[in-house]
Design brief:
globular; three-stranded antiparallel beta sheet; two-stranded antiparallel sheet; disordered N terminus; 5 strands; mainly alpha
Length: 239
C-alpha cells in the first residue's frame, strides 16, 4: 500500500506543479523561425542527428522524471522539426502524426547503432548544385543518396515550396521499423543520452506532460501493453 501511494502522489501533484511552468519555447532564440538545414544529404543527416540528440537529452534530463508543460512543448517542437525530415507522403494523413513519431525514434536508434561514413564522405550541397530534377524525373529516377551498406536513402524534393530539400525517402520511412528490428541488438556507436527510447515510447508517450515517464516505467510489465491498429506485425504490441 505504501509503495502504491508513493507512486500515486507524484501522479496527482505533477499536473498542478507543471501548469506553473512557462509554455513558450523557441528552438533558436535569435532566429526562432529559421528552418532546419536540409540542403544536402550531409546537412539533413547532421540536422537529424543533432536535433534527435537534443530531444533525447531533453527526455532524459527534464521530461522523463519531472515533466512540465514547457518541456512538453519543447518535445513537440523537436518532433515537428524531425518529422519535416521524413517523406510522409505515402502515410495516410490520419496516421502521420503517430507513425511519424515512431519513425523518427526508430530511425535515430538505427543511425546510432550502424557505421556511418565520415562527414567529408557524405555529399554536401555543392555536389548537387548542377543536378537537374526535371532531367532526373524524365529518366524515371529522383536525385538521392543512400548511406553505404544500407537501404536508408535521402531524396531531394523535386518541386513545391520545399524543392531542393533532402528528406528521408518514403520507402525508408516505410521500412524503418524493419531496419530497427534488424539492428536493435547491436551496441550503440554514438553517445545517445536516453538509450532504447524507441522501445519504450509506446507506453512512455501515453502520459503526456501530466504523468511522469518514470511513474509509468515503475508499473508492472503486464500494465505496459498498448493496443494499436497501426502496428506492422500485430494489433497488440508488448512494451
Amino acid at each position: 500500500m505504501k509503495n502504491f501511494l508513493a507512486m500515486l502522489i507524484p501522479c496527482v501533484l505533477f499536473p498542478f506543479l507543471a501548469v506553473l511552468a512557462p509554455a513558450v519555447y523557441a528552438a533558436d532564440t535569435q532566429f526562432p523561425l529559421k528552418p532546419p538545414d536540409l540542403s544536402s544529404p550531409r546537412a539533413t543527416l547532421n540536422t537529424f542527428l543533432t536535433t534527435s540528440d537534443e530531444l533525447s537529452d531533453l527526455l532524459l534530463e527534464e521530461y522523463r522524471g519531472v515533466p512540465t508543460r514547457a518541456g512538453y512543448f519543447r518535445k513537440l517542437e523537436f518532433e515537428r522539426d524531425l518529422e519535416r525530415m521524413l517523406d510522409l507522403s505515402a502515410v495516410p494523413p490520419a496516421a502521420r502524426r503517430e507513425l511519424g513519431r515512431d519513425a523518427i525514434h526508430h530511425l535515430y536508434d538505427v543511425l546510432s547503432r550502424i557505421e556511418l561514413p565520415t562527414w567529408d564522405q557524405i555529399p554536401d550541397a555543392s555536389v548537387f548544385a548542377e543536378a537537374d530534377d526535371e532531367e532526373a524525373k524524365s529518366i524515371g529516377r529522383r536525385i538521392s543518396w543512400t548511406i553505404p551498406n544500407t537501404e536508408i536513402t535521402l531524396e531531394r524534393v523535386a518541386d513545391g515550396p520545399r524543392a531542393g530539400e533532402f528528406v528521408f525517402s518514403s520507402l525508408t520511412v516505410a521500412r524503418v521499423r524493419e531496419f530497427y528490428d534488424n539492428v536493435g541488438g547491436l551496441p550503440y556507436r554514438r553517445d545517445v543520452p536516453l538509450k532504447n527510447y524507441a522501445q519504450m515510447r509506446s507506453y512512455l508517450a501515453m502520459g503526456g506532460w501530466m504523468i511522469p515517464s518514470s511513474f509509468i516505467e515503475a508499473m508492472p510489465k503486464w500494465l505496459k501493453y498498448t493496443i494499436s491498429l497501426l502496428s506492422h506485425k500485430s494489433d497488440i504490441k508488448k512494451a
